[in-house]
Amino acid sequence: MHEEHHMLREIRENHISLEKIIGNTSEIIRIAERIYEENRNLNKIFFVGCGSSYHTALYGAWPLIHSRIKIIVSPASEFIFYYNRLVEKNDLIVGVSRTGRTVETITAIRSAQERGATSVAFVSTSEGELAKISDVCFVADVGKEESVVATKSFTSLSVALAFFSATLSRFLFDKSWDFVKELRKLPILAEQLIRMEEVIRELVKKAILYNAERFILLGSGPAYPIMLEGGLKIRESSYAPAEVFHTLEFRHGPMACINEELMIFLSVLKDEAFYHSKKLLEEIMEKHVNMVLLTNSASVINDKDNKVNKILIPDVESVENAALLSIIPLQFFAYYYAVEKGRNPDKPRFLTKYVDRL
Ligand code: F1P
């Protein structure tokens, strides 16, 4: 029965589409080269998208956020209403969209073009309008994605965009990124996580047993957009409230919401935030909350009584890749939780594959 859902099949295909993207980086390098050559006085870069594609924009802009160039990442709608005023001739706009048909993203690209900006599209099909109107376009070959809920297209477009940003930052500032060197490992590591499907299914059964009805997801740095995406997967496929915060923001209000119905997903990855995320983890543990820890550090907690559910992310060197991989267990969780709740995750109520009205 579960096998019939597109969403499940598509989560299981994450590694295949990642393999295709990583085998096609020369095309992305060509695009970055062209942008660099034709825009020597590049001033600002806007990244826009909606829903999952907005999360891709946030994750994919990360390498450039650490540069001297001005970066503005926003939902495409916010760009149309506010940020487009800031666009000038030497600016670049990057629009992300799985379908290339989302009205806000198309409108954002058009309005930036009218103000003289160069536009790049990251899409998963050349058939949408976005591919046709953009100055440059990268089409990620993710194969068919039939579920309304984006899964493998999210991982592929996110890797493609982050690689593009890292390549541009190499041309512009001679900066190299460790996550780029590790990209080749991603498909195999994704496959390792896909093999954890049964573990996640058990975790969902526990969540049902605990009466978990609400979720909070916490992450920082490049894991923040990934947790945003995990929260969206839960909301879209099961309609359960799933809020997402930057990790330490939890102490600034959300902490008051702890109750028996809550389950917290906390990402603790080995980076600058590690020590502080670990301290928050200990603090939450004292409050006896249902918790799932997503970590690439097996020894992060002393949990002899096995009170905390742990999902071990393969130990890659770069936090960017560890963060990205974390979405796979979250996709499985969202899927199985939805099925347990009697929902059809392929066709969430009131949702369509893309929005065509403003
Ligand atoms: C954007 C999006 C999807 C979401 C929903 C509505 O689509 O927000 O992420 O799942 O179906 O549209 P796109 O611009 O990436 O095609």
Your description of this structure?
The mean pLDDT is 95. Helix content is 46%, strand content 16%. α2 runs parallel beside α8, α4 (52-65) packs parallel to α8 and α11 packs across α15. The chain has helices spanning 6-12, 14-22, 25-38, 52-65, 76-81, 103-114, 129-133, 152-173, 178-181, 186-194, 197-209, 223-238, 274-285, 319-325, 327-340, and strands at 44-49, 70-75, 92-97, 118-123, 136-139, 214-219, 242-246, 262-268, 290-295, 309-312. The longest helix has 22 residues, at 152-173. With 358 residues, the chain is α/β, with parallel strands linked by helices. β4 (118-123), α7 and β5 (136-139) form a beta-alpha-beta unit. The strands form two sheets. Strands 2-1-3-4-5 form a five-stranded parallel β-sheet, sandwiched between helices. A five-stranded parallel β-sheet has the order 7-6-8-9-10, sandwiched between helices. Bound molecules: 1-O-phosphono-beta-D-fructopyranose.
Low-confidence stretches: none
Structural class: alpha/beta
Which ligands does the model contain, each kind named once? 1-O-phosphono-beta-D-fructopyranose
Q: Assess the beta-strand content as a share of residues.
A: 15-25%
The CA-CA distance between the termini, in Å, is 37 Å
Give the strand line-up of the largest sheet.
2-1-3-4-5
Per DSSP, the total helix count is: 15
* C-alpha Rg (nearest Å): 20 Å
The overall pLDDT, averaged over residues, is 95
Biggest sheet: strands, sense, closure?
5 strands, parallel
- Principal-axis shape equals globular
Helix content: 40-55%
Give the H and E element order: HHHEHEHEHEHEHHHHEHEEHEEHH
| Total number of strands | 10
